[in-house]
Each structure stands twice: as structure tokens, then as C-alpha cells.
Amino acid sequence: MFNYTSFHDVFPTEIQLPYDRRLQHEIEAHRKNADDVLFIDRVMRALGIPKAKVYPPKTEHALRQLHQQICGAGMSMHHKFSLLYYVLLDFDDASKEVFVSESFASLSGMPANYQLFMKGLWHMDREEYSRAIEYVAHPSLDPDFADDIIIALIKQAPDQDYTLALSYFYSVQPILKSPVALELLFDAMAHTNVTQALLYSRTHPQHTREQLFRRWISCVLNNSGGDDLPSRTNELVFMPFDSLEETWFEEYLTVGEGRTLKRAKDTLLIRKIACDRFSDVAKVRPSGQWAGILEGIKGGTAGQTD
């Protein structure tokens, strides 16, 4: 009868320890890329195994010690199974033929949602992010470690392509707890979809919403360049703001930190034109590329305002 506390019931004698120097080096490289913390490190810490870097076990003796540590820890049975299952995924990957993790899950009665989540974290730790999303974004799962997942997906995004991070967020809809995760996610949104970022800012309480709104303006103006500049800037200035956003917009670009942005004056000017505030526009001293337009507006509004 299967007994998870028996080492050879979990790790059959016929399978070979996968942690050769190559795999050890790969795991440590992935750990370094992840700011020195893998997801398995986070899970173990959260479940009461605080000792740093007990994974990967480099020898059979170390694996036995880890097995005993998991079995003796004060955590639920399913959590113990989850940690053992994660380790067994390394054995699967090394053999390519014998899938001991599946046998373990079946014999132990490990719930499917625990398998999904740990397999997703395993792929996250291997930097196989597309595969990871297939598991960690599954609708049957709670959004555990959502902040860390989003931070990892954004930091590791190739060429500022935040598709995976945003796909995960929109699928799972987690409530982010970390300011770092929120800021990274919001910047990714603003870089990818100006309108969606503004709508997301409106889902927060007023203080946070105001901070995000200012960050939104900064992100759009700083990240706009080349052929992308006109469309992104136009999208920003022609957005239908409410009264609060209108006030924040003008304050940020005139007296706030945004006044130092390279395109602050031009953006504010276009906004005034877009909102038919021609009396305000007429007060602007004409210069640069806008001189002709401003002179035309002044001529058109001459005699219409006192």
C-alpha cells in the first residue's frame, strides 16, 4: 500500500537522480534570473520550510533529507504532496519516458488543482512562461502568488511584449497586493493599450486612481516614439476624461512632475484644442510647429471673446 512517508514509495529505486551538474547549473541560473528566488522557494517558505535553497537536492542523501523535512512539517497533506510532486516533475523531465509524477498523483490521491498549480510554478521556474500560463491561469485555481507571477512575467517579457502577463491578469483577475506588481502591471497596460490602462485606473480608490492616472500620462508620453508617437498621444489627448481626470491632467502637466516631460506643453495644447477651449489656446504664445495653428485659432476667435 502506498505510503508517502516511505522514501522509495515516492522515489522508486529504478529511477535515476536527475540533479547532475548540468541541471543544478540550470536551476541556479533560473534562480539568479528570478532575483534569487524561485517559486518553489516561495512555496516552501510559505508552508513552513524557511531554510534557504534546500532545492535542488544535489545528492540522494540531500533528497532523503528534503523528503523527511516535508513529511515532518506541520502542513496539510495536500501541501506535502504538492512539494513532492514538484520535485518529481524534475524526474519526469530527465527521463522523458517514465512519468513518476503521474504515478505519485494517482497513488496519493493528490487533487487535480494542486497538480495544475505546481506544474505551472514548475514551468515558471524553468522560464517556460507560455506553458506556465496554461496551468496557473486555469479557472479552477485561486490566484495564489499572483503578484509574483505578474512581476516575473513582466520583468522577463521579451522586447516589451507583455502579452503573457496581461493574458494572465485578464484571465485570473487577481487583486494585487504589492505596489511593485501594480505599477509594473499598469506600465505594461499603458505601453500596450492606452484606453485599457485608463479604464483599469478607474477601478481603484481615488488616491490610488490619481497616482495611476499621473503615471499613465507619464508612461504614454515617455514610451511614445517614432511612428507610434502620434497615435498614442492622440489617443491620450482625445480620451473622454471626467472632471477629476481633467483637473489632474492639467495640474500634472503645468505644475506637477509632468511639466518636465518633453512633450508636456504640446500635449496640453492639443488637449485644449480637442476640448474646444479656444479662448485658452489663444493665450498661448505661438512657437515651433504649432505657431501657424495658434495664429489661425487666434484669428478665428478674434472678437468672439471679451
UniProtKB/TrEMBL annotation:
<feature type="domain" description="ELYS-like">
    <location>
        <begin position="37"/>
        <end position="254"/>
    </location>
</feature>
<keyword id="KW-0539">Nucleus</keyword>
<dbReference type="GO" id="GO:0005634">
    <property type="term" value="C:nucleus"/>
</dbReference>
<dbReference type="InterPro" id="IPR025151">
    <property type="entry name" value="ELYS_dom"/>
</dbReference>
<protein>
    <recommendedName>
        <fullName>ELYS-like domain-containing protein</fullName>
    </recommendedName>
</protein>
<dbReference type="Pfam" id="PF13934">
    <property type="entry name" value="ELYS"/>
</dbReference>
